[in-house]
Amino acid sequence: MHDIVVKAPDAVREIADRLEGAGHETWCVGGAVRDALLGQADVDWDLATAATPGEVKRLFGRTVPVGIEHGTIGVFGRDGRLHEVTSFRADVETDGRHAVVTFGVSLDEDLARRDFTINAMAWSPSRQELRDPFGGRADLQARRVRAVGEASRRMAEDRLRALRAIRFAARFDFAIDADTWRAIVDSAPSLTRLSVERVLQEWTKTLQQVRCPSRAFEQWRASGALAVLVPRLSAVEAVCFEAVDHVPLPSCSTRPERAALRLLTRLALPFVTLGGREAHAALTALRASNTDVAFAGAVADSWVRVGLELERLAADDVPDGAALRGIASSIGRMRVPATLRVFAAIWAARRERDVAAPTGAQVARLARRMLRIAFRDPIALGDLAVSGDELRTIGVKPGPLMGRILHDLLQRVLVDPAINTHDQLLAIAVQHVEEN
């Protein structure tokens, strides 16, 4: 294996050198080794060592007990990053969610407890040696996700591994080994043992890491995991998952606010055609944040209320301005850009399936018009040239009548923005007072 070179960062090599200098065998392990062999960058380098957690803490000044009961100590490297250093360990018992471990085992025994062969390789910076007892490198070359040892046993040890296998396969465009896939399908009914938080975390990682998540979510469906974990999505059309593929990855190179919006859009898309109430319920059941639930619920509600009308308007060379203002008002000014991105992704996925949908040019034209309207035209009560305070000067008291008058004024302005002047609106309001 000396023909292989894995370039670990200097800070990681320094941690390994200090541990080995104190007599503790130490290796780089996990995803960083896998990604290095794939030629991909990875900032999260973990190490496995013969040192006990106490010995690790004594050797380094800046540490964090990130998982000390499982032998993991976080060590700050010279690069300022926290690198996890874990003692060689083996499982004593596990219930599918939690494991009891023992220390003092060999590296190969430590690697044997890992999930997949591509994650069960280790690299020694000092010896420039790859340890690969389960054929992980061959599986990388074969583009295959395969469980370490007996697949059914690996899935039973940690039920999350079924979802992780699907994520890795979609992320790297790998196939899942036949025995491993059978074990995933067999384990689906037991996925209820997973906490909702771990399920949401895995779902979110898929959205963050996989360029085309639809493949992963269809494997959730095919394996039975979707029906067990997110039952409201089990009957959703495949195009709803494929729409996510049309939203760029929220990469770390993107500005944080844009990356956050991309992730939020990706999160909401599979739930949009459920409608607002069902989307809200589904994401609440997953314990998504209140912000994420509110966003997805609002966009899903807009899809049901105005999606078809926007499709019709997109086909017009000059979409009706009053209709667009009404839609923008119902969506809400600040939600218009994100709502259009969601709709555009669904329409793009439909076009790929040769299902009737606005063309890319029509969508772009519609978006330009809608955005101009949303941010230039009066579409909200606060945009009216008269306010509730001014209505009180003509004898309108706060209450239902004032609400009806303001609503009527807004509807008139949506049809004809030119009447949004103080005098014209106040005259209309006076008519309301006289009629009541």
Tell me what the structure shows.
With 436 residues, this protein is of the alpha+beta class. The protein has helices at residues 10-21, 31-37, 53-59, 107-112, 136-142, 151-157, 160-172, 178-187, 196-209, 214-223, 225-229, 238-242, 256-268, 276-285, 290-314, 321-331, 336-352, 360-376, 388-392, 400-415, 422-435, and strands at residues 26-29, 46-49, 63-67, 72-76, 82-87, 89-94, 99-103, 122-124, 129-131, 144-145, 175-176. Helices cover 53% and strands 10% of the residues.
Task: From the structure above, extract its key features.
single chain, 436 residues, alpha+beta, two-stranded antiparallel sheet, 21 helices, 11 strands, 10% strand
Structure, briefly:
This protein has 436 residues and is of the alpha+beta class.
Helix content: 40-55%
* Beta-strand proportion: 5-15%
Number-wise, the strands total 11
Report the mean per-residue pLDDT as an integer.
93
What general outline do the C-alpha atoms trace?
elongated
Largest sheet: 7 strands, mixed
Radius of gyration: 28 Å
Strand order of the largest sheet: 3-4-5-2-1-8-9
Structural class: alpha+beta
Number of helices: 21
**How far from one another are the termini?**
90 Å
